[in-house]
Amino acid sequence: MAEVSTPGPVASGRGAAAPGHGERVLRQLDYWVTVYKRTWRASIASSFLAPLFYVVAMGVLLGGFVDAGGAALEGAPSYLAFIAPGLVAAHAMQTAVGETMYPVLGAIKWNKTYLGMVATPLTPADVVAAHLGFVVFRVATACGAFLLVLSLFGLFVSVPGVLVAFLVQLLIGLAFGTPLYAYSAGLSDPTPFAVIFRVLIMPLFLFSGAFFPISNLPDGIEWLAWVSPLWHGVDLTRMLTLGTLDVPLALVHVGYLGVLAAGGWWWSVRRLTRRLLS
Predict the structure, then answer these.
(1) What is the Cα–Cα distance from 86 to 105, expressed in whole angstroms?
(2) 3-state secondary structure of 70
(3) What is the DSSP letter of 71?
(4) In angstroms, rounded to a whole number, what is the distance separating the alpha carbons of residues 268 and 180?
């Protein structure tokens, strides 16, 4: 009887190196590209039109009634030049907040996307990195377009300053996005989000130096603005766009925002790991 040949053993893959963290993060790129393709139209108003309306209404129309400049507006030659950097920084905060609250809870509780992800070789750290990478992308596109529009008003002193200010917006986004990601990852329902918006995001937007110098605040409240991440972002953005850079103070701003971003990232991984794998 003729001997029947059998195929050789199929490679088990044991000898192949397991994909590293960076590769596992990149493997989620298709998912986040698909998400953006399906949602980008809905973000046009909040990401691009609303900031422009703020600039026109507050900076151009209301600014025409503000007779102040120079020292009164921290070196800004006009109220429009003063308010524009603050609005960009506030926009970075709001964009990051919007991408790390309901989307995170939804991926855990409602559509259970994260549960499907960690059922594969992906780890919670990989999931966090990919999602926060998408947050950085959203902040970059929204604030990049905002800065481009503002440049048409002739407000900026130098191109390098604007480019560095653009990078600062990414840091602002992470400084807010990572702690709120961690907070959202541990929630069981969205009720606390309303409180976050009312007692944290809106007061920061109004009283962190975006619309007026924080020196105008009462003494008992001014120190609260000093510890606000948004004030650090607003002041740093204004320095860069107006050409009034104070290097020691700028390093303090960067360090403060960097510590919040790094600490929030660590907390995000820890909270999501506990939520998904415990």
Answers:
(1) 29
(2) strand
(3) G
(4) 8
Q: Which residues, in sequence order, are bridge partners of residue 76?
A: 70
State the DSSP H helix or E strand holding residue 84, giving kind and residue range, or none if neither: helix 79-99
Residues with Cβ within 8 Å of residue 206, at least 6 apart in sequence: none
Q: What span, in angstroms and rounded, lies between the C-alpha atoms of 100 and 107?
A: 11
Give the phi and the psi of residue 4 in degrees, each rounded to 5. Answer: -85, 125
Neighbours of 170 (CB within 10 A): 20
Pair 63, 79: CB distance under 8 Å: yes
CA distance 161 to 166: 9
Whole-number pLDDT of residue 5: 45
* Structure-block tokens of residue 118: 């960690």
3-state class (DSSP) for residue 100:
coil
Q: What is the pLDDT of residue 39?
A: 83
At 142-182, the pLDDT tens digits run 999 889 888 888 888 889 999 999 999 999 999 999 999 99
User: What token pair was written down for 242?
Assistant: 């107006």
CB hemisphere CA count around 272 (13 angstroms): 33
Whose tokens are 């503002």? That residue is: 150
User: Element (H or E) spanning 159, and its range?
Assistant: helix 159-185
The answer to whether the beta carbons of residues 132 and 174 sit under 8 Å apart is yes
pLDDT, the chain, mean: 87
Contact 268, 185 (CB under 8 A): yes
pTM of whole model > 0.85? yes
- For 64, the token pair is 């025409």
H-run or E-run covering 241 = helix 229-242
Cβ(225)–Cβ(231) under 8 Å? yes
